Structure formats: structure tokens, C-alpha cells
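User: Design a sequence. Structure:
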């Protein structure tokens, strides 16, 4: 490794014993170039590092030797949009990374994989896997023409493989080792190979027992193998942008009818001499459907399928500018728990959609949030949010906010105003106590500091559990939302409330379209395949909540989140 000049980021990371490090910007690129295109040796002195990101640095050609051995605790390594070739990666990834769960090598112009990922020969035989815990591998936007069976041995626990924007000609191709135990990729649930040059989708795709999502859009496929119907868990498939010979099948593909496609392939398709079998299969399905309907089950199945909504999760590794919320230590004693995410693609413009959105939020505050005593929701127009954000505490006489529908005011004065309003309401309604709507005002009694979410300009955009700011107020034109849920009770309550909030917004979005309040008539042709899909899915972008040292506290939505609403929501991960 090179040592050209000081690296203050690395010095600070070593001094503060950081577990997360992100290197970016022109100064970093200049130092990398001055160091011969390598990372500095000081990086090897950070054994506690768990997450490392260095992206968008065209000067970075080599990791340098010893990175894997020096950083054994790494669970996230993002090296996207650099100039790393197989040789440049080889030395750095030459040893095992036993804790690594996410590896992003997208946009590096790779023509072959490094040896550690099975890029040479048939892999390491019976040697221990180099990445035994790797769950997500992003190889998009490279120049890969083929993949070897060594990858299955190097990363046996892989769940997500992203290969879009390469030059692959066959899939799975050489990715699967010869038959025999153990089965390759037993956990692989998502395979994305869109925008390649794939001419053949092999029947051995059915050898992936956990495959749920397959994307081979915009390739050169002429046929789809009948074996696709043997993928036991395949739910989402995108074959659009291929020139299929079977025009009936192509119509199903363009209509995003995954279930119909698989049934059609299972029945033998067209032009295979099995037309009678296909007709019999259709008749059989009709009989089974009628039997279910007669027994009362069919109608229920149809209702459940139709009621499914669709959201797509954009992972941090796929997001060029992921939003991060930093939490100060002081919130622990005031309001310790916060969960955030970004939700894109809402439609609040037609009719009374905005009014219904605000009413929905009020109802959630009344019900699942227990009149804000269990948790509080804040929704913001993402375009008006100035990142990065800090979840902090400030004294009541120092915290200033411009509350919704009011002028800027100090927090202590705002609370006094709201308490007077609550008391006046109590008197008017002749009640013994203040109404439930105002009970949350007591949650900050006796606190020396109040919680607040502060933007990059130092403005308070949220003051939970009281109000959020006029500065980031949602309007009819709002398309993208920043959502936050806070609680002084538990993190799980925050997650459960966020799950429900996303579900309710998805229901509202679909209702708007079903009532023809929106103009999205041209959206349908671009929709992702999926059950119950009426338009483009809402996109939920993961947001990380970290402490002042950069250590991850919360990532939402994680793989286990949104489970509480899974019966009503289909999540593409």
C-alpha cells in the first residue's frame, strides 16, 4: 500500500475506534492518485472496522495486499464505481472475510472475477469458503461475460446476486457447479441479470430452490425454459424487453403476469405439440377453482390475492446517495428510539388524496400510536429535507421550530400554548381532564432537554412527540416522503408503526388510482411484475441510523421488517 501524505479520516477513525468509515470526495481521489492508485497502509490499522465504503474514485486501481487479513470484522464493503480490476482486487481480497455480509463491486469495469470469488479455474476445491457469511453480492455495471462455479463455493450463503448491466450470454451458465452435494446457492432468493446479452436461460435455473425473484429483462432471449415452472418459490419474474418467438407468451410477459407465465410453461406452452395437455390443464384449473368457490375457499383466495399491494425495497448498497441519520448520545434519556425510511412514488395530487393522507396519519396516532404515548409519526417532503440529519436534544429555551401552520417559536413557548389550548378545549367540552389528543403534551414534563431532528442547515424539522416543521410540510405536489417514527418505549414499537404506516400509504395510493383520481394511465406498461400490481410499486429506500462514531444502530427496512403486514403487502427485496 502507498503512504502519500496524511489521511485525517483514517487518523480520526483510529483515534475514535470507529466501526464505520466512508471515504469520498475530490480530496480522497487526489490522495489515492498520489499514492499510485492504492489505499493507504493506515487502513490496515483499523481492526475494529465493520463497514467500509469508498466509491466513485476513478483513481483507485488496487486495494493493496492484506486488507482481508487486517479487517476481519468487516461485514459491509462497498467499492462501487472505481477502477478496480481482478488483479487490483485480488491482493486485497486474497484472504477470507469471515464476517462479510454485503460486498458491492458494481461499476468497476470487471471483465473477470477475482480469484477469491471463484474467478479462476474451478475454485478452491474443498478449501473453506472465503466469504462464508456473504448474503448480498453486487456485480452490476461491469463487463463480465461469464461466471464460474467457484462463486458458489466461495459464497455458499448468498441470498442476493445482482448482475445487471454486464455482457453475460447465458444464465445460469457456468455459475452452477456440476450436480452433486452440496446443492449450490441453497439460499439464493434474488437473481438480477437485466440488461445483459443473455441468449439462453438454462433449464438448470430450477436448481435454485430458494429463488423468489428473477429479472432477465432487456436481453436476447427467444424462448423461456419450461423448467422455470419447477422453481418452487418463484413469485416475481421480469422477462420484458426480450424478443420471444411465442407471441402469446410475450403478451403475458408484457402484462407482468408471472403466475400465468409459469402456468403456461408448466402446461407445455405453444408450438411444443402439447396443445391438448394445455387445454386439459386449463380445464383442470377451472374445476379446482369451482370446487374452491363451492366450498367457500376460492372466493377468499381471490380476495386475498387481489388485496395484495406491492412495494420494492432499495437497499443501501444499491442507492448512490443513501440517507443517514446520526443520533446524539443525549436522546437516550429523553426519547431513545427512532426509525426512518424514504418512500418514493406516492400520488397525493388528485382529488382529496392529501386530505385522506393526513386523516390516515391522525388515525394511526389515535390507534396504534396510542394517542402518541407509545410512538409518534412525522412525515416530510423529501425534496425539502436537507441531509444529513441529526437526531439530537436541545434545551427547551434554545430549541426553535416553525410548527405546522404557525410562526417560528421556542419549544417551551409552543408547549405552553398547546397546554393552554388543551385546557380551553377541556372547559368548552366540560370534561374533567384534557382530551386524549393532548395527553402527549405531558410526555416532556420535567425534561431538561427536548428531542429534535435537525437538518444540515441547523433547522429543526421535527419535534417529537409534538409536531414537525412547516419547512418540510407535505403538499399535493409531493411525490417522495421521508418518514420517521420515534418512541421512548421500544425500538420494536417504532418498527411496527412504520410497517403499518407504509401499508396504509400503499393502500391510499392504490385507492387513488382505482378511483381514477390520478393520471397514471401510462404507468401500467412500465410496472414491475407482481401479484395485485396496478401501477409502479412504491419504493422504500433503506435509511441507516448511526451513532456519533458511525456505528450502525438501526437499518430500516431490514430483511425481517414489514413482516407484520406481509399478509397484505408483497415486498420485493
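Assistant: Done.
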Amino acid at each position: 500500500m502507498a503512504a502519500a501524505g496524511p489521511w485525517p479520516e483514517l487518523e480520526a477513525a483510529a483515534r475514535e475506534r470507529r466501526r464505520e468509515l466512508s471515504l469520498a470526495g475530490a480530496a480522497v481521489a487526489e490522495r489515492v492518485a498520489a499514492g499510485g492508485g492504492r489505499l493507504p497502509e493506515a487502513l490496515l490499522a483499523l481492526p475494529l472496522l465493520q463497514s467500509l465504503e469508498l466509491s466513485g474514485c476513478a483513481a483507485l486501481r488496487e486495494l493493496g495486499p492484506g486488507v482481508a487479513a487486517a479487517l476481519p470484522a468487516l461485514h459491509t464493503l462497498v467499492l462501487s464505481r472505481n477502477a478496480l480490476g481482478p488483479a487490483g482486487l485480488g491482493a486485497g481480497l486474497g484472504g477470507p472475510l469471515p464476517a462479510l455480509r454485503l460486498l458491492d463491486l458494481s461499476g468497476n469495469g470487471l471483465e473477470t472475477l477475482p480469484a477469491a470469488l471463484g474467478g479462476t479455474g474451478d475454485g478452491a476445491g474443498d478449501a473453506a469458503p472465503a466469504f462464508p457469511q456473504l448474503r448480498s453480492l453486487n456485480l452490476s455495471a461491469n463487463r463480465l461475460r461469464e461466471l464460474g462455479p467457484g462463486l458458489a463455493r466461495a459464497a455458499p450463503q448468498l441470498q442476493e446476486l445482482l448482475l445487471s448491466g454486464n455482457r453475460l450470454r447465458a444464465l445460469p451458465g457456468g455459475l452452477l457447479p456440476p450436480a452433486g452435494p452440496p446443492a449450490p446457492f441453497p439460499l439464493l432468493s434474488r437473481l438480477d441479470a437485466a440488461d445483459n446479452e443473455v441468449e439462453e436461460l438454462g433449464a438448470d435455473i430450477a436448481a435454485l430452490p430458494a429463488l423468489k425473484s428473477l429479472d432477465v429483462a432487456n436481453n436476447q432471449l427467444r424462448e423461456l425454459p419450461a423448467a422455470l415452472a419447477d422453481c418452487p418459490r418463484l413469485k416475481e419474474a421480469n422477462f420484458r424487453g426480450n424478443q420471444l418467438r411465442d407471441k402469446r407468451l410475450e403478451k403475458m410477459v408484457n402484462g407482468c403476469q408471472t403466475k400465468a407465465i409459469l402456468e403456461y410453461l408448466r402446461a407445455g406452452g405453444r408450438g411444443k405439440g402439447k396443445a391438448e395437455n394445455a387445454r386439459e390443464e386449463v380445464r383442470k384449473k377451472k374445476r379446482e377453482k369451482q370446487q374452491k368457490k363451492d366450498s367457500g375457499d376460492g372466493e377468499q383466495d381471490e380476495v386475498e390475492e387481489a388485496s395484495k399491494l406491492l412495494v420494492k425495497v432499495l437497499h443501501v448498497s444499491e442507492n448512490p446517495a443513501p440517507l443517514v441519520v446520526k443520533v446524539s448520545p443525549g436522546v437516550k434519556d429523553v426519547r431513545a428510539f427512532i426509525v426512518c425510511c424514504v418512500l418514493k412514488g406516492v400520488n397525493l395530487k388528485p382529488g382529496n388524496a392529501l386530505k385522506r393522507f393526513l386523516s390516515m396519519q391522525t388515525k394511526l396516532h389515535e390507534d396504534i400510536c396510542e394517542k402518541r404515548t407509545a410512538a409518534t409519526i412525522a412525515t416530510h417532503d423529501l425534496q425539502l429535507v436537507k441531509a444529513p440529519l441529526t437526531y439530537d436534544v436541545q434545551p427547551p429555551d434554545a430549541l426553535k421550530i416553525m410548527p405546522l401552520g404557525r410562526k417560528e417559536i421556542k419549544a417551551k413557548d409552543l408547549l405552553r400554548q398547546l397546554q393552554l389550548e388543551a385546557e380551553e378545549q377541556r372547559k368548552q367540552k366540560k370534561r374533567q381532564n384534557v382530551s386524549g389528543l393532548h395527553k402527549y403534551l405531558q410526555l416532556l414534563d420535567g425534561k431538561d432537554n427536548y428531542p429534535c431532528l435537525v437538518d444540515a442547515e441547523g433547522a429543526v424539522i421535527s419535534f417529537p412527540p409534538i409536531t414537525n416543521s412547516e419547512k418540510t410540510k407535505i403538499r399535493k405536489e409531493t411525490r417522495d416522503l421521508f418518514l420517521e417514527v420515534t418512541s421512548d418505549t421500544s425500538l420494536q414499537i417504532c418498527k411496527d408503526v412504520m410497517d403499518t404506516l407504509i401499508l396504509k400509504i400503499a393502500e391510499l395510493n392504490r385507492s387513488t388510482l382505482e378511483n381514477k383520481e390520478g393520471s397514471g394511465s401510462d404507468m401500467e406498461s412500465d410496472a414491475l411484475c407482481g401479484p395485485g400490481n396496478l401501477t409502479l410499486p412504491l419504493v422504500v429506500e433503506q435509511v441507516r441510523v448511526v451513532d456519533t462514531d458511525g456505528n450502525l444502530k438501526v437499518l430500516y427496512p431490514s430483511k425481517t421488517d414489514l413482516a407484520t403486514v406481509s399478509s397484505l403487502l408483497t415486498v420485493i427485496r
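Residues 270-279, 298-307, 516-535 have pLDDT under 50 and may be disordered. Residues 491-514 form the longest helix (24 residues).
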